[in-house]
Amino acid sequence: MDQAAGSRRRPGTAVSLETTASGVQALCFELKNGQPKTYLVRARKAICAMPLFVAARVVRNIGGYGLDAARHLPAYAPWIVANFLMKEFPQELPHAPLSWDNVVYGGKGLGYVVSTHQDVRVAPPAKTVLSAYIDLAAMEQQAARRWLQDARPQDLLELAASDLKAAYGPRFAGLVERADITLRAHAMASPRPGFKSNAGLQALRAVDGPILFAHADLSGFSVFEEASWWGYQAALRALA
Ligand SMILES: Cc1cc2nc3c(=O)[nH]c(=O)nc-3n(C[C@H](O)[C@H](O)[C@H](O)COP(=O)(O)OP(=O)(O)OC[C@H]3O[C@@H](n4cnc5c(N)ncnc54)[C@H](O)[C@@H]3O)c2cc1C
After folding, report:
1. Whose CA is nearest to atom 43 of ligand 1?
2. Are 223 and 150 part of one and the same domain?
3. What CATH number is associated with residue 208?
4. For residue 232, what are the CA distances in angstroms to 51, 212, 215, 216?
5. Same domain? 162 vs 145
């Protein structure tokens, strides 16, 4: 274990976070050239901005802050995000030009976006990336996670490409140079009835001490503005 004394910024994963007599201490982990390395970070304050299902395992005695993981953690929806590197743009129907965000009526996923859309160019690029989003909402969340765990690569590819195949038909596969599929088993907190009065989330939102909490999960639903708000609140408290 080595001390992160000189450096102000280090990548890595916090394995544990606890308060000490003078502030906080985080035990962190990183891979360096494939080798695991741990180091300690000591500070006056820490902002714990990881998802709450992770924080529940990392923050020492999170129950002391008012979160009972068994009762208060939000339900999490799993998602698949798949990036298809295209050799060229697929041909569109004359009356249905490609948009940035494209939804397939009755599709299995939430459609796909054109990830080169915001490239500033005088002409469209030769190649592009189409990013497909699959919410797996047809399955119960735990069952969907199990499905993801056991699925064969070809099953994942089939589901990930289903909206694109519906849009472009059999010619789609021949246009794909490469597909990168990311499985996000706990991608987004899903609000359930009563989420606004979740006592555990209310308690974490009010914490003002050496450890501060900030994540969209504090709101109980997964929206960027919520993440931004709790980050701002935590920063104000850290600087006070
Ligand atoms: C597929 C998908 C599509 C979405 N689309 C939209 C959208 O269109 N609009 C919208 O508003 N929101 C959208 N969201 C939700 C949005 O992404 C989240 O609300 C937002 O990212 C939450 O930000 P955050 O900073 O709270 O947490 P996160 O983005 O979850 O960041 C948490 C960070 O903590 C890090 N971390 C985790 N564990 C540890 C650890 N032990 N130690 C150190 N670091 C750790 C993670 O690596 C991550 O960087 C989408 C989410 C998904 C999954």
Report:
1. 13
2. no
3. 3.50.50.60
4. 16, 11, 10, 12
5. yes
